[in-house]
Amino acid sequence: MYQWRKFEFFEEKFAGKCSIPEDVAGDVTCCSSGRGKIIVGCDNGAVSLLDRGLKFNYGFQAHSSSVLFLQQLKQRNYLVTVGEDEQISPQLSSMCLKVFDLDKMQPEGSSTSSPECVQILRIFTNQYPEAKITSFLVLEEAPPILLIAIGLDNGYIYGIKGDIARERIKRFKLEVYSHTDKSQSSIMGMGFRVDGQATQLFAVTPTSVSLFSLQTEPYSRNTLDQIGCNSNAVAMTDRSELMIGRDEAVYFYEVDGRGPCWAFEGEKKFLGWFRGYLLCVIADHRSNKNTFNIYDLKNRLIAHSFVTKEVSQMLCEWGNIILIMADKSALCIGEKDMESKLDMLFKKNLYTVAINLVQSQQADAAATAEVLRKYGDHLYSKQEYDEAMAQYINTIGHLEPSYVIQKFLDAQRIYNLTNYLEKLHEKGLASKDHTTLLLNCYTKLKDVEKLNVFIKREDGVGEHKFDVETAIRVCRAANYHEHAMYVAKKAGRHEWYLKILLEDLGSYEEALQYISSLEPSQAGVTVKEYGKILIEHKPDDTIEILMRLCTEDAELAKRGSSSGLYTSMLPSPVDFLNIFIHHPEALMNFLEQYTNKVKDSPAQVEIHNTLLELYLSNDLDFPLISQANIDEPPTNSRGGRPSAPAATSRPKTNGKLSVFQKDLNKEKYHQERLQKGLRLLKTAWPSDLEHPLYDVDLAIILCEMNEFKEGLLYLYEKMKLFKEVTACYMQAHDHEGLIACCKRLGDSGKGGDPSLWADVLKYFGELGEDCSKEVKEVLTYIERDDILPPIIVLQTLSNNPCLTLSVIKDYIARKLEQESKLIEDDRKAIDKYQEETLAMRKEIQDLRTNARIFQLSKCTACTFTLDLPAVHFMCMHSFHLRCLGDNEKECPECAPEYRSVLEMKRSLEQNSKDQDQFFNKVKNSKDGFSVIAEYFGKGIISKTRIRGNGTLGAGNNSSSSSGF
C-alpha cells in the first residue's frame, strides 16, 4: 500500500479553530450526529447539542452518573441514551435506557430547560442478567418502531423491539459466541443490514464475525469468519457491508462471507465511511503517533493523510468529517470541489487518475469528456497520435468534432482521422460534412474494402448512420458509381439512382427497367424529373412506360363498377407534358395513344387542347424528316404517326430535287395533321353536348394563327356565329361558297339568320367588280323572304359601278306590280271603312237629336207581354223590371259584346305602356313600318283621344209605370 499516491483532496474547515465548547464540562464519552446537529455525552451524565461549527446550543442532564452511549434518530427528532443513574435498590441495576423527545422542552427552573423524557427502560432484569455494555446500536424500522441492539462483554446481545415511547416492546437475547476467556467473547461492534423486508445483524467479537437473521423466530446465526477484532474499529459502508479493522488489514464482509481486504498496517482505532471513502485512524506504536487517512479504494489512492492527536470520537455531519480529540479539540475536514482536485492532477499530468476519479465520483458526462480532452491534448503534444485519438473517441457526443478533425488534418494523420470519423458515424452524430470527409478519406486511401463496409453494412432496410445525399455526391465525384447507386437504391432515393444511370453512365435501358420496377407513384415522380433525357434517347420505351402509368390501372378499373373513380386517381398525361418540350412529335404520339385507349379521362380538355396545338402548328419540327436520308418516310411508331410515302429511288440530282421532295413531304404531313385537327374538332364536340371537350377560344385562336379555314368555319357555325362564317368566305372571295353558306344558314325555318342575305348583298354592292350572276341569285332569296325593301336594294347595289340596270330590272318590275296590287287593296279597304264610319256617325247624330219610338210589346228576356213597370234601352230592347233584377243600367243582350270591346280597349292601352314589347315587335318583324301603322290604327300611340259620353251603343234609358 506504500505505492499508493497521496493527494490533498480534503482540506481543514473553519480555519482550524474548532473545539468542544467550554460549556461541555465533563469528558466526552460518546457522540452522535444527525438532523444538522452533533450530540455529545459526557462522564458527568450531561448531554450537549452543538450546531454547525461546534457551537454550543443547549445541554441537559440525561443521567445522574455517566452517559455511555447515545444515538440521534434520523426519522424523528428523538435521542436514545444509555447511562448510569442512581441505584434505587440492590436488586435493580443502575444502567438504564432513556428516550428523549427533542421537540418537546420542559421547564427546569427559571433559566434552563431540557427535552421531555418520554420513556425510561431498565436494560437488565432477572431474565437478562447484568453485564458490561460494549456496543450499542439503534435501527429505525418504521416509526415509532425501533430495534435496539445492546452488545455485552459476555458474548450476548440484548434486543429490544417495538414502540419504546409507549413501552410496547418485545425483548430477546442473541448468543454470539461463548468462550471461557471472557475477553474473547466481548461484542466489539455491530451493524444492521436491511434487505427489503429482511433485517440482519452483524456481530463482531475478537474471535468471530457472525450474522443473525431477524426475520423469523427463532433467530438464526451464521458464522462468517473465525477471526474478529480486538478494538472498536467496526463500521458499515453505504452498501451495507461490514468493515473490520485489524492490525494487518481492513476486511469487508457481506452476507455470504468475507469479501475484499485492504492491507493497511497499524492498529486501527477508528473506521468510518464517507461518500465512498474509507476513513481510518491508525496508531503507529513505533512512533507513538496517530495517522488519519482517507482512502479512495476504487482509484487506489490516498485522498488525504495527516498526523493527529489522540482521537476520541469520529463522526460525519454537514458534509464534513469531524474528529474529536481526547483533549476536547476538534478537526473539521471537508472535501474539495471536483475542479480543484482535477487541477491538482492536471498539474502533475496524472490524467489517468483524473479520469478514474471523475468516473468513480459519477461526474456528469461533460466533465468526464473535458478530462478526456485534456488527456488527449497531452498525448497529442507528445505526438502519441494513436493514444490521443483513443481518448478523443471517448469524447464523442460532448466535444465538438471539428476540434479533433482540425488537429489531425494539420498533422496529416489520415488513418487516425478515418478512425475518428467512423466512430462518429457509428454513434449517429455525423453531419453531412463529416460524411463527405470520411468518404474522401476512403477514396484518397483507395480503401475499397472499408468503403464497402461503410456503404454496404446491413443496419436494417433504409437505415443509415450517415447522410445519404452527401455519400452519393462524394462517391459520384470520385467515380465510385457502383457505391453511389447502392446507397441510393437502399435508401430509396430513386432520383439519385437514375441521375447516376443517365448522367454518369448513360444506361438508358437500365434506367427504364428500374423505373418499371418502381411503384406507380414513385415511377411517375422519376419520369417527371428525368423524362426529357429518356424521351431524347428512348422515346418509344418511355412512352410505353407512360402509357402503363396512365392507363394500366384504368383498364383494370373498367372491369369493375366504379371505373371513373379509379381513372381519376391515375396520373394524368398533362402532368408529363414538360418532358416533351423539345420533342413535339413524341408528345403527339403519346397523346394519340392515350386518347385511343382512354375515352373518359378527367383531363380530356387539356389533352385535346394540346393535340389541337400540335395538329394545327405550321412549323412542327420532326427529327426523322430532318435527317440526311430525307427520302425515307418517318418511322410509324406505335402511336400511329402518319408516314409519308416512300420514294421509289433516291434522287440523282444535285440536291434541288431533294429539297423539293423534303418540302413536299413536309407539306403533305402538315395537311394530314390538319385533317386530324379537323376530325378532333368535330369528334370532341358531339351534338348532345352544349360545350365541346376542348377550349373553344383557344381552338379559334389556333385556327386563325395557322390560317386553318375549315376548322374556323366549323367552329363559327357550331357556335351559331353565322356572320363570322360569311365573313370568312367574303375574306377569301369565295362567292360560290358564300352563297352556298347563306342557303344553308339563312333559312329562318331551319333556325338560320335571314339577315345574312342582306350582308351578302351589301358585300356584292361594295365589291367593285362584275358579279351579276351572284347578285341575281341573292335577289331571288331576298325577294322570296321579303328581307329588304326595294329602295334599300337599289341603294346598296348602286355602290357597285360594275353592275347594270338589267341585273335588277326584273326584280324591280315584280316588286312594282306587287306594290300596285297592295295599293289597290288598301284603297278598297279605305273606301269600305269610310262608308262604315259615315253610317256610324249618322246613327250617333240621330240618337243625339231625334226621339226613339219603342214599339216592342213583349219582354226580350221572358217573351211575355210587356207590362209596367218596364225598361227600354236605346238598342231597341225592352224588359220587365223584374226580369232585369239589380242590373237595370245595361242591356243584358248587348252587354257581352260591349264588355269585349271595353276589354280590348283596356288591353290596347296597357300594351301602349309596354315599350319593350313594341320595340321587339318592330325588331323581329320583316316590315317594321306595318307594326307602327298597326299601333297607330288601333289608337295606341295617338297623341289625342276621342272623348265620348262613356257608353258606346247604349243610349239613354227611360222607365214608366204605366206605358208611353
From TrEMBL:
Example of a GO biological process term: organelle fusion
Principal localisation: membrane
Stretches forming CHCR repeats: 392-543, 561-773
Membrane topology of this protein: Peripheral membrane protein
Region of interest called Disordered, as start-end residue ranges on this chain: 627-653
Protein keywords: Coiled coil, Membrane, Metal-binding, Vacuole, Zinc, Zinc-finger
Coiled coil: 816-850
PROSITE patterns: CHCR, ZF_RING_2
Subcellular location: Endomembrane system; Vacuole membrane; Prevacuolar compartment membrane
Biased composition annotated in UniProt, kind: Polar residues: 627-638
PANTHER family hit by this protein: VACUOLAR PROTEIN SORTING-ASSOCIATED PROTEIN, VACUOLAR PROTEIN SORTING-ASSOCIATED PROTEIN 11 HOMOLOG
Subunit structure of this chain's protein: Core component of at least two putative endosomal tethering complexes, the homotypic fusion and vacuole protein sorting (HOPS) complex and the class C core vacuole/endosome tethering (CORVET) complex.
Protein task: Involved in regulating membrane fusion at the tonoplast and the prevacuolar compartment.
Annotated family: Belongs to the VPS11 family.
Name of the protein in question: Vacuolar protein sorting-associated protein 11 homolog
Species whose genome carries this gene: Rhododendron simsii
